[in-house]
Amino acid sequence: MEKVEPYEKKFSGFFPEGAELERLFTGSKWAEGPVYFTDCDFLLWSDIPNDRILQWVEGLGVRTWRSPSGKANGNTRDIQGRLITCEHGTRRLTRTEYSGQITVLADHFKGKRLNSPNDVTVKSDGTIWFTDPDYGILSSRRDGIVVNKELEGNYVYRLDPATKEIIVVADDFVKPNGIAFSPQEDLLYVSDTGLSHDPIGPHHIRMFKVTDEGKLDDNGVFCEVEPGVPDGFRVDTEGNLWTSAADGVHCYSKDGNLLGKLRIPEKVSNLTFGGNINKRLYITATTSVYAIWTNQKETYPCLKL
Ligand code: MG
């Protein structure tokens, strides 16, 4: 428990007595996009530079689940439980059908190619919300290619897979990145990680009210994360937001107060809840995947059915 650093007392209560941080795997180049399949009891995550998605099964270990993966980045599941993937290299958003076939959900907006979809979440009405910063086309370093950007900005999108309608819901981000709804889906959180390419750039999470028409009203900055940036994050059923940072996982109350930190030995990119009744926190951090049991949990739409 020495890794748990409470800023408010209640944070210690988020972990069961004796909870230990475990390293489940090391050997990724840049681990990202963890998603748990509670029904089948396995974790998938992206290893972006190695162009693969890996799978971890308790007691069995790790195997390559998909390669090439289009340099898969963020992952989630839709309301039917199918895998939704941001393919940062092939610059598209895809769905993996039960047959294993890959369906392209979006690769253009108004005739122009997307930049490099980064992270994604699904609302219980089936709509898919994703961020499209330009990390994948800015440099050939680590995981990208250098190509001219077709779109003017780095937008946040809402896609309705039933009608294929895609709209921009936010157009004023430097680098939109992580994305998650509050438990009631009345709020949407989106991070801006502009600090990655500008020393005075944003490293915060913004909060939006979701309107009945499925649009967003800006509610300002929810929290500023440091050190590092809030690359990926999730919200638990009590509305606490668990985000990546350079020194570990930071947990904020729904009022935006820092409740505590979970120190991780490597820079954290993203996280998800999973495991038995979704109470285990899985953390992708640079080369490794870590896990710790918590008393909190996350519910996403396919688990509400
Ligand atoms: Mg990201």
Order of helices and strands: EEEEEEEEEEEEEEHEEEEEEEEEEEEEH
Described by the principal axes of the CA atoms, the overall outline is: globular
Please mark out the parts with pLDDT under 50 across 5 or more consecutive residues, or reply none: none
Count of helical regions: 2
Assign a percent range to the helix content.
under 10%
Q: How much of the residues is beta strand, in percent? A: over 45%
DSSP, total strands: 27
* Bound chemical compounds: magnesium ion
The major beta sheet can be summarized as:
5 strands, antiparallel
Radius of gyration: 18 Å
Quaternary state reads single chain
Q: What is the distance, rounded to the nearest whole angstrom, between the alpha carbons of the first and last residues? A: 35 Å
Q: What is the typical, i.e. mean, pLDDT? A: 95
Q: Provide the spatial order of strands within the biggest beta sheet.
A: 1-24-23-22-21
Structural class: mainly beta
